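Lecture 7, part 2: worked example. A protein chain together with phosphoenolpyruvate.
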Amino acid sequence: MVRTLIAAGNWKMYKTVQEASAYAEAFLSRVGNFQEVEMIICPPFTALPALSQSLSHSPVKLGAQNMHWEVKGAFTGEIAPSMLKELRCQYVILGHSERRHIFRETSEEVGKKVQSAFAWDLCPILCVGETLEERENGATNQIVEEQLLKGIESLPPEKAHTLVIAYEPVWAIGTGKAATPHDAEEVIAFIRQKLGEKLGQEMVEKIRILYGGSVTPENVFDFVVRPSIDGTLVGGASLDPEKFWKIVQETYRALQVK
Ligand code: PEP
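Predicted complex, written out as structure tokens:
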């Protein structure tokens, strides 16, 4: 089954509002009405209002990089799902490795966020992945399984098909050392097997699983042409509109031969 492929850009803590607006102009001039690949941009919170406006009549979707699970309250520095909905976000990245490792987010917390995102009709992009040490110790599957199953513990079955998983080996993020497509496929097959055990085979066929970690215009084709890889989550290379557009085009080229 060929699912709609995704090219999602995670800008992390890059770009002011002004820079984000200039990017949108440059990127949209390339995109035009192109809709064959699902394009998602996840800027910092501060740039969401400007991008919400500039992307509103385009096929490019808007996502956030994180959120709290509560709707409101005394949570200084946090952003609620209702606030993202108000800005017409459709996606939210949850459990990114930088959140897990730098900010010590636990899989239980990520699970609460996933549940809350679904309650607000936001599609979670749930990130899972092992560190280099965990891979070298042969613990990849164990780590990925823990992050995955706790992440989707309270998944409402009727919305499960909108879930997006991103397999992002931590050692490949921002290092210029991507996993091999073969290694990525091996872990993605394991993720699909675990999802199947929980949600059933029919459902799992609908869920998109992305690869992330040093994706570039040069290597993206070899990932997304693989039957089990439904797109990419891109950090560094998504910061340049020309490079991100090339990634979208390469994704489309792969789709045509899949
Ligand atoms: C990411 O931020 O999720 C990521 C994969 O970053 P990069 O593409 O820069 O490795």
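Residues 10, 12, 168, 173-174, 212-215, 233-237 surround phosphoenolpyruvate (CB under 6 Å). Residues 130 and 215 are 17 Å apart (CA to CA). Keep this in mind for problem set question 3.
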